[in-house]
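Worked example

This section walks through a single chain of length 132. The input is the sequence exactly as stored; nothing has been trimmed or padded.
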Amino acid sequence: MHEDSMRVRDLLETARARLDRLDPQHAAEAVAHGALLIDTRCADDRRRTGTIPGSVHVPLSVLFWRLDGTSGHARPELADRSREVILMCADGFSSSLAAATLQDLGFPNSTDVVGGFNAWVASGLPVELAAG
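Given that input, the structure is written out below as tokens.
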């Protein structure tokens, strides 16, 4: 590795310094007031551990294309750059990097949930389990 190469922990620290991260309770309050909560976890994790009522599933692999209205692959209902966008992954790591990238793409009100889905569950906030 080059001496001047950034490590992932440095990248994460830089990303988080730009975010106004929310604990699960504050994220739930923001969603109640119109924020968009995007769950970036894979479908298998969502089936296994549940989903958050009102959240939208957008896998991390396509997140930027679904939100960027100029990509040709956007979901119009997600492309409002003025709306608060809150990302959630399993533990709050990949969501921090993705939220900072969304800010770079012109979504200034993007952030994530500290501790991710697992912190949401630990906080006793609502989760819907898959039927079956």
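What to look for: The mean pLDDT is 95.
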